[in-house]
Structure formats: structure tokens, C-alpha cells
Design a protein that fits this description.
single chain; mainly alpha; Serine Threonine Protein Phosphatase 5, Tetratricopeptide repeat; 23 helices; about 75% helix; globular; TPR-like_helical_dom_sf
């Protein structure tokens, strides 16, 4: 009898779950050990759960979401045997979150919490999904519940982000500091992640050297950590070293093919005079964005004022899945590029409703007001953006200066 479609799917899922990792890091070795153990004795569930979690750690260490497919395969195999297995359901929820299936991630987290209201992993997933879905107050409440149950790196890290989005950088830094203090030296990636998030606060505030030190510390914790390489590339570009910025961004992109990184690489190469290399990087932005990150591609097209129609289609499609602060701001800017200033103003105001003070949001809000004839208020916001960080994004910073009559 020929194998059925179900049989083929099961073999594919198992092969993905038990795939041999290509690297030689500590987590790669852990995966290899668990795979051998499972291949020898596949019946016990616990090794499968450990394998799924190891795949998640590999995805985080390498900033490569592709490894969540391996973790998801593990979750599917366990849930096929034990549909109510809570660790596997949490693993599946994490994969849904990373896949931008935010509604489904939130729903599954809530199902887990219905069985155990104190499940820390499910609370973290729920808070993250709520934030992406635009349910800011709900995310605050869920994150506070997580903090009340267990003050820890995941709790402090989320609190740091939420305080930043509320326009309170001092509280954000305090929480990120607490997250660092709560880190586990045996697992340095979460520590590196917090360092990068804290460094971004310094970056937004215009403390380029402070940000650079944070990115360096992250690289000391996890060598060649892509988010830290991206941060250092931004710093190098801000300091006028475009060649160095391009080299750092290229290293990050080689390890972690993200849309944002390809965009930065293109900007760095263009600033270095490498027009051909810039065009190649911008082509990657489109390829990666259409496959996995419509929001960043829409932001790129709107920032460059290229194909505003596609930018608007992409971001409206993305708004169906996530309505968070930054998605809403990209929609505002795409509407501005299309000349729909009233609709752009509504979305920009919504993006800033919780007090978020990032330079790009301030610039967008100011430019929209200027377009509506509110020159004084608009210019004030644009100046605030440039005062925070005059290098916040090459195209936007140049456009901001032009709006104020300070650049050509």
C-alpha cells in the first residue's frame, strides 16, 4: 500500500523535530544529545519537551525564527500523543507568537491559564500577544500579574518595554537593570537580549556612546549576537563610519536574515557610496518582507517614499493580524505618503496615545500636522525628534531637517 498523505506529513514533522543542528554551540550539542536519546528511546515525553525548548533557545541565540519550525514540530508530535500536555501547549503558543499568529497565541495562552492561572510562560505569551494586538492596557495587567507571581528576567524585561512605550525612560532603564540582575549566567542569551533592549533606550535618547557600550556588552555575553551587531551598525552609521556599519550589518544579516537588517545594510552601503550593493540589500528587504515581515517592508517603502500604494496594502493587511503601536504608526505614515492627512493624523494620534516618545513617531506626528496646516505644533514635534536623536533613521532624519528648512 502506498503511504498516505498523513504518513508523509508525520515523517516530515518527525524529521524536522529531530533534525541535526549545523552548529557547534552549547545549545547545538544539547540538541544532538536529546535527538540521540529520543531516537534510542522515543516513548518518554520529557526529552521531547526539552528538545523543543532547546530549539527555541537556538532560535533566540541566532535570532533566526526559522528554528521555531523545529520547535513547532516537537510540539505537534507531543500534542499528537498528549493533547493536554501543558509544556507542549506552551511551546506551541510560543511558536504561534513568533509566527505572528497573535490571536491564536493569545487564545492558546488563555486556555492554558484556564487550567492554571499561575502559568508563567502562558502569562508571558499572553502579555506579548496583547501588546501586538493593540490591547495595551490588557498587556499591562497581564505583565503585572507575571511580575506579582515571580519578579524575574522575563517579568522585568516586559516591564521595561512597557514603561518605555509609556514614555518613562527612567522606569524602563530601572526595570532593564533589574532584569540583568535576575539573569542566569548559565543561559546568557536572555541577558544579551535585555542589554540590547536597554541599549535601544539609550539610542532613542541620542546617547550613541551609551548605546554602543550596551551592544558591546551583549556581544561579550553572546558572540556575534545579531541584534547587537545591528545596534552597533546603527551606531557606526550615526558616527559617519558607513563602511564599518555595512560590515556589521552584513554579518548580522548572514546569521539572521531579517527585513530590518537588510534595510540597514542598504542604507549603510548607500552612505558608503556602494550603490550596487545598496540595491542588492534593498532587494533583500522586499524578498524577506513579502515572505515574513510585511510591516517592516511597508515601513521601508513609506520611509523611502517608494510605491506608497503597495505600502498601504501591506500595512492594512498587517493591521488585520496586529494593531500595536508601531504597526499603527506605519499605517499613519503610509496614509501620509498617499496624501490622506486626516486619516494619517488619526492613526498617528492612536500610535502615540500611551505616551510613546520615539523619534520616528514624533517626526511622523509632526510632519502630518505640518501637512494639515498646523505648522507651529508640527515643527515643534519634528524638532523634538531631532533633539532626541538626530540620527534616528537616515531618510527620516534628512526629511525632518528639510521640513524645518535646515537641509537640502
Amino acid at each position: 500500500m502506498a503511504p498516505s498523505v498523513q504518513d508523509d506529513a508525520a515523517r516530515t514533522t518527525r524529521a524536522l523535530a529531530l533534525q541535526k543542528p549545523s552548529g557547534s554551540s552549547t545549545v547545538d550539542k544539547e540538541i544532538e544529545i536529546l535527538v540521540r536519546r529520543i531516537e534510542k528511546t522515543p516513548e518518554p515525553i520529557d526529552p521531547w519537551i526539552l528538545l523543543g525548548r532547546a530549539w527555541v533557545r537556538k532560535a533566540r541565540y541566532e535570532a533566526d525564527p526559522g528554528y521555531y519550525l523545529n520547535a513547532g514540530a516537537v510540539a505537534d508530535l507531543v500534542l499528537g500523543r498528549e493533547p493536554k500536555n501543558r509544556p507542549a501547549r506552551n511551546l506551541r503558543a510560543a511558536v504561534l507568537l513568533e509566527s505572528h499568529a497573535f490571536v491564536e497565541a493569545k487564545d492558546l495562552a488563555e486556555q492554558i491559564l484556564a487550567d492554571d492561572p499561575d502559568d508563567l510562560l502562558a502569562l508571558g505569551t499572553k502579555a506579548d500577544a496583547e501588546l501586538e494586538l493593540g490591547a495595551f492596557d490588557a498587556a499591562l495587567s497581564t505583565a503585572q500579574r507575571l511580575m506579582d507571581l515571580k519578579p524575574s528576567l522575563p517579568a522585568y524585561g516586559r516591564a521595561g518595554l512597557l514603561r518605555w512605550l509609556q514614555g518613562d525612560p527612567a522606569a524602563a532603564k530601572k526595570n532593564y537593570r533589574a532584569a540583568m540582575d535576575a539573569s542566569d549566567p548559565r543561559d546568557p542569551e536572555p541577558f544579551a537580549w535585555v542589554l540590547v533592549e536597554a541599549a535601544k533606550v539609550f539610542w532613542h535618547e541620542g546617547d550613541v556612546d551609551g548605546a554602543d557600550k550596551g551592544f558591546d556588552r551583549a556581544l561579550s555575553a553572546v558572540a556575534e549576537y545579531p541584534p547587537a551587531l545591528v545596534g552597533k551598525a546603527r551606531v557606526a552609521l550615526a558616527k559617519g563610519d558607513a563602511k564599518r556599519a555595512a560590515e556589521l550589518a552584513a554579518r548580522a544579516l548572514a546569521k539572521s536574515p531579517l527585513c530590518e537588517t537588510a534595510w540597514l545594510l542598504g542604507d549603510a552601503r548607500k552612505a558608503a557610496g556602494d550603490e550596487k550593493g545598496a540595491a542588492e540589500a534593498y532587494k533583500r528587504v522586499a524578498e524577506i518582507g513579502r515572505a515574513t515581515d510585511k510591516r517592516t517592508l511597508a515601513a521601508f517603502l513609506a520611509a523611502k517614499d517608494k510605491d506608497p500604494d503597495e505600502a498601504l496594502v501591506l500595512i492594512r493587511e498587517e493591521m488585520k493580524a496586529r494593531k500595536g503601536i508601531h504597526t499603527t504608526d506605519v499605517l499613519a505614515w503610509a496614509l501620509y505618503r498617499k496624501g490622506d492627512f486626516a486619516a494619517a493624523r488619526k492613526e498617528s494620534d492612536a500610535a502615540r496615545a500611551h505616551g510613546t516618545r520615539e523619534p520616528v513617531l514624533l517626526f511622523h506626528a509632526g510632519a502630518i500636522r505640518i501637512a494639515q496646516g498646523e505648522k507651529k505644533e508640527g515643527e515643534k514635534l519634528v524638532r523634538e525628534a531631532l533633539a532626541m536623536n538626530p540620527h534616528f533613521e537616515p531618510n527620516a532624519a534628512a526629511e525632518a531637517k528639510k521640513l524645518l528648512g535646515e537641509g537640502g
